[in-house]
Design a protein that fits this description.
The complex is a heterodimer of chains A (286) and B (334). With 286 residues, chain A is mainly α. Chain A has one domain. Chain A contains ten helices and no strands. Classes of the chains: A mainly alpha (286), B alpha/beta (334). Chains A and B meet through α1, α4 and α10 of A and α3, β6 and α4 of B.
Chain lengths: 286, 334
Amino acid sequence: MAVIPSIRAALSRARTAAWLGWQVEGNWADPVLFSIYILARPLATALILAIMYSTVRAHGADPTVFVGFYVANAFHSYVNTVLVGMGWVVFEEREEYETLKYVYASPVGMFTYLAGRSLVKFTLATVSVVVTLLVGWFLLGVRWDWATVQWLPLAASIAAGLASTLFLGFLLAGWSLVLTRSAMVVLEGVTLASYLLCGVIFPIDLLPRPLQAVALGLPFTWWYEALRRFLAGHGTHGVMQRLSDTQVLLALGGASVVFAVLARWGYFAFERRARALGRLDQTTLF
Amino acid sequence: MVSSSEARVPAVETRELRRVFKGSRGSPDVVALDGVDLRIEHGEVFGLLGPNGAGKTTCIKILNTLLYPTSGEARVAGHDVVRDSVEVRRRIALVSGGENSGYGILTVRECLWMFSQFYGVPSAEAGPRVNRLLAAVGLSDLAKTRINRLSTGQRQRMNFARGFVSDPEILFLDEPTLGMDVNAARELREFVTRWVRERAGRTVLLTTHYMAEADQLCDRIAIIDRGRVLACDTPAALRRSVEGGQHVELEVMGAPEGLSDVDGVAVTWGAPHPDRGTHTMKLRLPDGGRLPLLLRTLEERGVAVRGVSTRETSLEDAFIAIVGRGLDDGEAPK
């Protein structure tokens, strides 16, 4: 069968791309400096969150709410690092390294290449999530009851959330193929928008109605809700509260599948557009 | 090696290939390729020769699956570049000269090894091949040097080596020696000649605007201008196509204003000689017998001739005759 050698070849190429990812991401000759780089942002966000909620708590806010939002904020590192990072891969390779056209015209396949490059980003994001949760647990009182953790739904929701992150990363990478220098603004915008829209640090009920509808269509909104319920033991108040755990899990699964299909279709549509416009080797910034 | 069945289809074939870039902000559309027909056989070193903006790089980009054609058809090793990009990419490699690309954080060896892995070269072959290529481009001593510490010329040599690391069936060299020093360019040309000679069926499509490079390397040359192929033949045949005259260069004192022809023979002027204060007049005489007459006419006009030389027809002469202007000249009058 030709399938197995093809899979083996794709895995080998993805491994090489992952190796390149490590060289690029870990290009901080000083390990201490590198550690600070990958931890500073999530920890800073977590501390700001802690300060905000300590202020709110003084006015009678439910302390369990903080735990839920802290967990979501920790896991949002995947979106910041992987999803947006995959867009950055395209942007940097085309604009700074000027290597995108050589990678694209090689047999590596952009999907395989981007998947390989995302592997290191997933690893770094995982380190960031774990450290943020540890800091929360030991320093900020972010605790949950291990006995009530629903391990199987939690594992399923993490798998769905990570898959969604990867697929939406493909979509954003595809979009970056088409964008020129404006990619920088778009990528930063996606980071910010996802933070505000997906109920990371406040319930989506606080959003205007049209944005609530958008939020409910995004898999990350359901992922963070699932994490709160299955790990921290408390969901958010408001619109989400009316749904059962199963419904949340189904909504997450459904949104993930829809976005996986959409992202795959969207990536190739963007790639075709970039090839039609001649953007694959166009440098506009550096 | 190329199989016999693959050898029957041309290495590269384009039919009525056309590419139009939409003009932005009210500017007119740009026709980069305007119905290009090419047929390049396996084992050929084929040159696309043309001035800047002729459409050479656009053609290379389409063949390398980086750009869609607006219309027409392009096939590489029998595979359509639009419908069957994946199969095309398995068989090709691209080197673009004059650019500074590369992952600065990798060493030279790491970069070449990485691309060998993208092309699926087995590890046991990749190492020795990378070593051979590094030696061939004179970068063995810099194998462990980070790319961001290389000079521009060294980076160009590394990128040149990258093109060969997969031992591709069809290699596209887009202005590969652009900006290189004379010695490095000569060494790389020799390497390409050796590489093709030692590997039966390997094909090279070279774009260049260096006449000597095209003349030295190419089995056949297509002269392209404003997106159209104006002539396609061997360098010798292209030269023969404009023979029938004698190329004369005269070193003269004083360049009379407005002297653009002598006895109906068009004159082009070379740059003034800085020390002797002379100018070089270039003419092509329909027959050698007219030279004494021409010298007499110049004498009558008060032009002092200090030296006379005649030479064979060059590819440049053929190019000027076919295109209507030199490679580095501006647009020809319409």
